[in-house]
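Handout, section B. The chain below has 210 residues.
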Amino acid sequence: MAGQPASLTVNEDLLSLYEAAGRPVYRLYEPEGLSIVLGAGRKAEEDVIGAHARADGVEILRRRGGGGTVVLGPGQAVLALVTEVASPFNNIGYFRAINDWFRRALEPFGFAAIEHRGISDLAIGDRKILGTSLYRRRQLLFYQGSLLVDLDLALFDRYLLHPSRVPEYRGSRGHREFCTTLRRAGYAGTVSEVLEALQPVVEAGLAALR
């Protein structure tokens, strides 16, 4: 039923694909439709405007890994990957290493000033453009990140309550004041072009990630 949280579904199949292949696996994509995705341990009644989700038929899903509840939809570039790394710890280091792939892929589009902010975000100035989550099981690392290319930020206000925990750099700002998109920052291209730029960077990064 729309508006009710489902079981783990978002890119969950990558864990099975990784175990079957015995090598790193990843997925780069633009979501085809809207969904609301709860982070591990988050509750729909605390994070989601359920009446709006039900009225619009927007499914509420859940993912492995921490981080806040997000809206996924067309206009985002999503990277999900599963790999083995050397350390069962060093999560911030792995966040930053993988997030750097986005920074490198976006530099040719004129985005040289993207910065790490908070624990695991990327931002243009003080406005977030990339949100991430991480699931760990010993040396197994399951990363998911969503880049705001040209998603309508009004969707955040429609479906998401103000989170109970926020990074310090957010302050008290609402969703649309806290986030931005590549389009708002001057990017005139498509999500597909961003995905094409990311693919070789991701493949090279996965081969070097330890």
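Note. The chain has one domain: 5-208. Compare this with the example in section A.
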